[in-house]
Design brief:
- The chain is mostly helical.
- Helix 1 packs antiparallel against helix 2.
- It has a domain of about 35 residues.
- It contains 2 helices and no strands.
Length: about 55
């Protein structure tokens, strides 16, 4: 496997792991929101997204 192919596999794996992390957060937030509708969904998402999508990660 070439270096480029290795990088593509790692990048693809990273993308899958990132998707799992985002969906896990959203699923958990939705479950909590269903049991406690007073949770303000948007600030919770913004707090998560600010940390998750920062460029120095």
């Amino acid at each position: 496997m070439s270096t480029n192919q290795t990088a593509q596999v790692a990048t693809g794996r990273d993308a899958v792991l990132a998707a799992v992390e985002v969906f896990s957060f959203l699923d958990g937030l939705q479950l909590h929101w269903l049991s406690a509708p007073d949770i303000d969904f948007l600030p919770q998402w913004e707090f998560f997204a600010d940390r998750f999508f920062r460029s120095d990660r």
